[in-house]
Protein 1
Amino acid sequence: MTHAKVFENRPPVLGINGLGRIGKLTLWHQIGRKYFNEIVVNMGRQAGTGHYSIARMNEKDATYGLLHRFRYGIKSERLIEIKDEKKGKLLIDGIPVTILREARNPVDIPWHDYGVDRVVEYTGKFKDPTVTADNPKGSIRGHLVKGAKAVINSSTFNSKTLTGASKAVVKHTLEITKTSQERIAGPAQSGPPNSGNSPNSKTDEKTISVVVSYSHHDAWLLKRLRIHIKPLEREGIIDYWDDGRLHSGYSIVEEIRLAFESASVAILLISADFLASDFITKYELPLLLDLAAKRGTVIIPVVVSASRFLQTDLSRFKSVNSPDKPLNALSTAKREQILAQLAEDVIRTTNKRKHCLVCPPCDPDESKMFSPSINKQSDEQEEYTASSRNQREFQQAKNRPKPKRRKRCLPRNRNNL
């Protein structure tokens, strides 16, 4: 069993609010992963005649059948045992599961009594993150009041301050819960704090997160990059982030880490100042290289000035412009062309990664298909193979003998008879 150190170095305990089909399949998934030492499920109401009914309900799914057969085959034994009927204690495949059947309002759920650190909200009722915890109709903030340190909402928030459903960390949470560093995360995953751009920003579930790593000496180029990226952000194609969106009063390293971990594309403005920065080489580059190797994060370098770029590990990623022609040595028109090409590369990479948003991080070998430095050769090879195949099929069709036409028994014009 995997033990993870989270928050107060306690064994991780997961809380699930809502036991519909999605909540049940989440329970199945976490039981199989064996990541959490214990799982607490809040149903919010009395269901069935007792925990025997609840156990049977969680044991079967309309699509996947019985849990024990789905996990271990048709000859396996049942995995759910009732340990304590009064306290709602179950044992599912060796993982203790506690069922709560009283509170419906999140502020009344005793997460702290069970040591729950993370809560997944599956009821779909609490879509406004700005509602206070003491609201009589309930609020997602009630989980934080009752001891949860992080809340993941399965449904989309209705707040216009969110610029991407894949990141969806609420700005209001950072303003209110400053002391405890608590966060409310939206669907898919917890991401970096968002500054809340235009209300017209789209919340498309296929939006790709793009981050920029740069030296402040190259801020002049970052301004032009933002202008070229802005149309993509307005159309909902990408969700853009750079350190200009850091919030005051919070750990810079922590916010940058959250932003990089939630990003699918990282743009690096390479210069001598970039490579000389102690902060970048210590905190940003190691994290980006690790994410590129393990999760397939696409790294796109842009050579700003002459530097030792070719002698670093970053040289294995294909840059937008040639290292022999840095941007500061080009005319304004040439620089604009390269930045426009960078935006097109981001769109191309975005289209290739869209199908991976709903699945776990890609395998490192599979993620190579998204790397601009590796993908060019594979595209040319694939085009050559397709061309050869078409020529071969055409030649085979040309050499194939034509079938003999059957002679007609009657003349074409019956009037000639």
Protein 2
Amino acid sequence: MTEQKALELLDLEPGASASEIRRAYQEIYNELQIRLTNAPTEHQKELYRKRLAAVEEAYLFLGGESEEDLSELPSMGPVENTSEEKAQAFKPQHLSEAAALELLGISKPFSRGKLIDAYKDKKEGFEKGIKVAPNNEIKNAFQKSLVDLENAFSLLEPLAERPTPVPPKPEPSKSKPEKKKASPLLWAIPALLFLAAGIWFYLTKGEKRDEISQEVKEEFIKVKSQADLLAEKQYWDQALEKYEEAYGLLADTEVGDSMRSIGQRLEAMALDAKAEEQALAWAIAQRANSTSAYEDFINKYPSGTYTAQAEQKIRDLEANSERKAAEQQQRWREAEEQRRRDQAEVEEQTRKKQAESDRRITEEAELLRREAEVVSSKPIEEVTNEIYDKPEVLPTFPGGLASFSHYLSNNLVYPTLARNIGVEGIVYVKLIIDTDGSIQDVELLKGIGAGCDEEAIRVVQNSPKWNPGMVKGRPVKVRMNLPIRFKLS
């Protein structure tokens, strides 16, 4: 092994100090030990064992020439940190907002519920790692991650949207965390690992094994380890690039074909995920069944599978809306015509009733006139109690009939009941004008009801004194009939 190769395996620069070499070895050894413990297949475990052996060889090459230097390290794990290094490891570190978001695996904006779920998931994983850690160094690494997790939660908690009334640092509960939609690449990575391991197994076991130099194999292991680390941290795009770089080192036609097959599979999985997402959005739009919902779908998927159907749905909804508007307009016109017919019928009935009322009033007035003529045709001597019905000079209201009409318009109060029910007509009262012109013995001769009769009697009783009637130059009592008209304006 050369110094350059040893430095590359430990990810060091030339001139690194002994402490830097030792620490780099510890970190890489810890990571590879965790991967070896969690490897799903025996073949992958064998690859990690080879990687560990290469790292140990690089460490011996750079750190010493004897087994005594390596004896201080655990046989299956890195050496223990000094007390000063442990104190430094557990010293609270200031986290930036970006680092806190990355640690919890979330992005802005985020709700408090989403933050709590991410915190619970990460905490459960770190606590499980502490329990199953094969040595103290790995356990310390998990404990430090747990401290960083607490700091990240405290930093992000005030930034959460619509906080819910829960304790600042929630305890893990049995409630099932919200299911998150995984990236299509998440499912592609295991398939890529499986296929890559198979290719490597074939290449190492088959006839092409001798064609691949030891140097290429070591470089392959290094790049693939970097890809494994990126995949564990869920940096899917970067991990895929590293995998392609690792297997590209083999420069084998069959490997290249296999990688292209993996790329095609990833692309197909991504297309399937997009199709599933589009189908879900289409189902939501159909449930809403509104123009705005279909327009939102078209804006999001202008060339989608269901775009033509969405456009047809919009046309159908608009046509249906226009039809309903036309039907509503027709119903309104029919209702307006019916209202006009009803109004005309009411007006006709009112007109007929008014004509009939006027006819009866005319007949009654004519009857009263005839009765008055009969009375007036009798000699004055036949009138009893010295009350004249037709004296030589009739009584008059001061100022004449015009003044009496003005008096009525200023003092007559239209009854509320009569106004509300639309009662109109003429109330006839009879009265006696005394020799001094005062009004006496006011009585109802013919009324129309609804309070109009009482109001007519009141306004006549309160009338100012009249000029009395005269017979042979002297004032006499005169009996008169007065019509009082009630007319709604």
Protein 3
Amino acid sequence: MAKSPLQLTVSLQVERSQSIGDDTALNGIALICKQRSPMPGIYVRSTGPYGDWTPNQYCPRGRLDAFQLRVEPPQGLGDDTAANNIRFHCSDGHTLEGKGLSWGQYGAWSPTCPLGICGLQTKIEGKQGAGDDTALNDVKFICCNRLMEEEEEEDQKMEPKDYY
């Protein structure tokens, strides 16, 4: 099995139900380097304006390699939230259920990233003022590729004087 250049944990930024107020649900996603990184800590974070961060979750013995996004369809005159939660598949067979909300349904699993997930791109709606806020509307995850793995192996061979 091919290794991933990054072992990642994931955390979600979630606004809990506002009961009477405007709900936004899932606001952000952070991928955090767990090990084997030249710069440990936050790797990629894309956030909206509301909510708190959930505890980190990670694959016990594998890497994140696919996902499902839970999305609530448009509510017409009701309160829209868009993305509510996310599930990740791990290369070791585990499934990580995000700590988001339960409105809406999960879509289909994404294609599998053979070398794991290395990054993300999100679509986040900004504050709407008196309008209906939704925050995170969509996400694309970036697959690691063999070139990244080869570059990491080359970096490990370099002497410290070769770093700029």
Protein 4
Amino acid sequence: LTAAIGFGGMFAMNSYIAPTFTEVTGQPASIVPVVMFLLGVAGLIGTPLGGRLVDWSVLRTIAIGLGGLALNLALFTVTSRWLIPAIVSVMLCSVCAGLLVVSLQLRLMTVAGDAKNLGAASNHAALNVANALGAWLGGVVLAAGYGYTAPSWVGVALA
């Protein structure tokens, strides 16, 4: 459930990142691939950082990942009007997501006992649910007319 709901926050923001950067930040559509690339780079930073942190404490790393994700999603709603601060907050979200994926994966494989493959697969399945849940709930608030920063507030609630 932590992966399916908590990580849904990342997907709530990420699913609507293109219109947020074009409509709220006021950038041309050509910035979107750059933002997505930087989001990926930040995730690559978060993943090995998460690997180091889980050696310290898996559960604390999950808490740091979720808390950091919620904090940075909220930060994105505030900074989304300015290009550089918006990119930085999106990248921080992705670093936290990297922490979260690694720690959730290890936690599920640990509690799975002899069924480690099932534990790993369940994390992947939960992330697919998170993708659907975050995008759907983000779409609900957009359809209600709350604007392109609203999906990130949904993300805060999910994280």
